[in-house]
Amino acid sequence: MGSRASTLLREEEIEEIKKETGFSHSQITRLYSRFTSLDKGENGTLSREDFQRIPELAINPLGDRIINAFFPEGEDQVNFRGFMRTLAHFRPIEDNEKNKNYSGDFIAFRLYDLDRDDKISRDELLQVLRMMVGVNISDEQLGSIADRTIQEADTNGDNSISFNEFIKVLEKVDVEQKMSIRFLH
Amino acid sequence: MELFFSPFDNLVCILLGISFTVWFTLLLVFIIVPAIFGVSFGIRRLYMKTLLKIFEWATLRIERGAKEKNHPLYKPYSNAIIAREPTSLEQEIKEIRRSGSNRDFDSASEFEMSDIFYFARRGVESIMDDEVTKRFSAEELESWNLLTRSNYNFHYISLRLTVLWGLGLLIRYGFLLPLRVTLAFTGVGLLVFLTSVIGLLPNGRMKNFLSEKVHLMCYRICVRALTAIITYHDSENKPKNGGICVANHTSPIDVIILASDGCYAMVGQIHGGLMGVIQRSMVKACPHIWFERSEVKDRHLVAKRLSDHVEDKSKLPILIFPEGTCINNTSVMMFKKGSFEIGATVYPVAIKYDPRFGDAFWNSSKFGMVNYLLRMMSSWAIVCSVWYLPPMSREEGEDAVQFANRVKAAIARQGGLVDLLWDGGLKRGKVKDTFKEEQQKLYSKMLVGTQEDRSRS
């Protein structure tokens, strides 16, 4: 007997998620099916191991950071609501519904800012750089890259990058186009 | 009291006796005798056509039911959720930088904070839909085939449909399952018994001839035990002695399907229990290649035994499944290069199951062997197509891996399956770190490479 039939998503839940995140009905059902297929423990939540089982994610240099973005502070399990909320950051947004809570640059900032203190420190920047380049660049070179980046972005002189400074740097990049994922339905 | 029951008992015994005799005669005439001679009455194909009509009707009812309640129907996706473009790391990051750069020269910056977008988007895309994990669970169907295990729209079933489903349940578990189990026991029992008997004969043409006939007959009985309806294409390309037959792997039934149409030397590890008994008696009649558990790890030993077998032209072609594990029949995964290093002619075979009648994929992490066989025997039927592809050999300047990929591509193309480079071992194991290191190297080149340019200019 398939467990999928018994944990079918209720209509009310679908409506709530639709209102909160803006995904369409069919997108939500498909992503729910994906959620259940990743949920090997069949307990309605995903753990970090469930994500790491995806080979393409495991070989992504920032894989661990991306997985982290799904889990709320200090928690080890994410339910379907939380899953959808994080994915909503990657939904292409129509111009008339610019919602600051679900935007590409917010989630990108989160990927840098590990301790969630709303600033990217030199150490945090170094950590992300190190993840992306592996062993191929020396500490000194990496350090100078980090210093240069902070110098260029930091406008208030506190030697770290705040969210507003971050947005200013990305001003010209069309974040929505570069971060959002094209859905087929 | 006893006097009262006695004639009644007698009557019951007589009735039981008669029904058993009738049952077995029917079995013999309609199933076993044709299996021995390799002919078919066409009953199974008729059965298949009838089932298809019923499934179509069932799907229409569900759709109608959903429309009445005004709910969009859950349609399992046979295509992807998202569109993924196959662009390279360098290309994409350059594009991101170019659009955001306020410098004059293009992409000469060494690091931009927006570089992270590429990795983030790729990562989330793979969370929403990736090519690998979905190959290790059963394929989803568009129409309903009256099996609870493949239905996701439970609450749209009308009364008529429920009755039909109940009837189907009765037929499958009450009639088909016992029939098939009886046949399976007959087939396996005959195989073990007859091969042991043949093993007593001296080696020679008579023994080979009889062994062939016996193997074919028993496999054909097993095929009927599963109600497998198989269509063989291009039989002129059937594997010959001294060759290696490779096929894509979906379930242990693959062996029965191929072996009921030709004689092969099987390769595998010796098991204990019933499997072991069957293996040991089979090898008495004709030389199969069974390995002890310890020998399996020794690649040189394995290769030596295989090449020795292949060189002896009087021995049967070897049957190997290079994927090493069961995949759900929507794709072909990496072929292990071992069998392609031996240098014999390779006969590729593509096997494609029709998922509408019963899902043949063995999800070994979810079901054990017995559970799996029971599910198989209580589905409607196993319908599949087998294509014998023309033989291939390793070309000049081609190494084993390239040869393996070439064969894999041919099989994928014929069977209409997706050709993947990923290792089937990912079903259980972790992916190697070398892939991640490759990505890191590529990205580092982008950062450092531009520094070198700058120092040069």
From TrEMBL, chain A:
A single GO cellular-component term on record: cytoplasm
Top-level taxon of the source organism: Eukaryota
Keyword NAD: no
Keyword field: Calcium, Cell membrane, Cytoplasm, Lipoprotein, Membrane, Metal-binding, Myristate, Nucleus, Phosphoprotein, Protein transport, Repeat, Transport
Location relative to the cell: Cell membrane; Cytoplasm; Nucleus
Keyword Transmembrane helix: no
PROSITE patterns recorded: EF_HAND_1, EF_HAND_2
Coiled-coil residues: none
CDD domains: EFh
Family: Belongs to the calcineurin regulatory subunit family. CHP subfamily.
Name of the protein this chain belongs to: EF-hand domain-containing protein
Organism: Echeneis naucrates
Automatic annotation (TrEMBL), chain B:
Signal peptide as annotated in the record: none
Cross-referenced InterPro entries: LPCAT1-like, Plipid/glycerol_acylTrfase
Domain of life the protein comes from: Eukaryota
Keywords attached to this entry: Acyltransferase, Lipid biosynthesis, Lipid metabolism, Membrane, Phospholipid biosynthesis, Phospholipid metabolism, Transferase, Transmembrane, Transmembrane helix
Ranges in coiled-coil conformation: none
CDD domains listed in its UniProt record: LPLAT_LPCAT1-like
Residues covered by the Phospholipid/glycerol acyltransferase domain: 243-354
Pfam families hit by this protein: Acyltransferase
Pathway involvement of the protein, from the record: Phospholipid metabolism; Lipid metabolism
GO (cellular component) term, any one: endoplasmic reticulum
GO biological process: phospholipid biosynthetic process; triglyceride biosynthetic process
Entry's localization field: Membrane
Transmembrane segments: 20-43, 157-175, 181-201
Primary location group: membrane
Full protein name: Phospholipid/glycerol acyltransferase domain-containing protein
Gene designation per UniProt: LOC115049071
